[in-house]
Design goal:
This protein is mainly α and 213 residues long. The chain contains 9 helices and 2 strands. The protein has a two-stranded antiparallel sheet with strand order 1-2.
Length: 213
């Protein structure tokens, strides 16, 4: 287990530093479901005392990312079928709100942003850079939220994207080229519906996209 945060990030407290370090490692799959979180080991790696570590673990437990058990201590929470269903269901709902709003607001600047991200995704597939494609996929969600101009939607989407990233890294270690190509085709269909100012069509595409995923 290797922990640590980017050196350019400043944290207000040691608790926040530990929390962000552990949470990031969990979301990136560097701390696997079921892995023990030993306070002494975390303390050595992050060079902090036990108190901020315990406080950070309590926060992570409240988020459902860590669980505690007698005689075992803290472990990374497993990924359940319910969590997978929840992530996709919430993402579908948020995307539906976002694309309907974009269909109403889309202007030339917004169209240029969306088209640019999708073109980069096409290039990533052509170069077989699938990790880059996955990162750009998250950027596409963020671009939709930016055009929709809904700060709360953006905040909620970021939380779900971090959960999705954990699921993706846990379940989809290999490259699933057919699904990536299919998903990219659906992104082009979505762009077409938004250009036509067709909120119902965009919503239908989003729902089918999530169900296929």
């Amino acid at each position: 287990m290797a922990l640590g945060s980017r050196p350019d990030v400043q944290f207000r407290t040691k608790q926040e530093y530990v929390y962000q370090s552990l949470r990031g490692a969990i979301m990136r799959g560097e701390l696997a479901p079921g892995q023990r979180l030993v306070i002494d080991e975390i303390g050595r790696q992050l060079q902090v005392s036990a108190i901020p570590i315990r406080e950070a673990l309590q926060l992570l437990q409240s988020e459902g990312l860590v669980q505690g058990a007698p005689h075992v201590g803290a472990t990374v929470a497993p990924i359940s079928e319910d969590e997978v269903h929840e992530v996709f269901a919430i993402m579908e709902g948020l995307e539906t709100v976002g694309v309907r709003e974009v269909a109403r607001r889309l202007d030339d600047a917004g169209l240029a942003l969306l088209s640019g991200v999708i073109a980069e995704m096409d290039a990533a597939i052509a170069a077989q850079e699938f990790e880059r494609w996955a990162a750009l996929n998250s950027d596409l969600h963020r671009t939709i939220n930016e055009i929709a101009r809904m700060p709360l939607l953006r905040e909620m989407t970021e939380r779900v994207l971090s959960r999705w990233e954990r699921l993706r890294r846990h379940y989809f270690q290999g490259v699933m080229v057919p699904r990536v190509v299919q998903a990219q085709g659906e992104h082009h269909e979505l762009l077409g519906a938004l250009i036509r100012r067709d909120p119902d069509g965009a919503e239908q595409i989003v729902r089918a996209h999530n169900q296929a995923a």
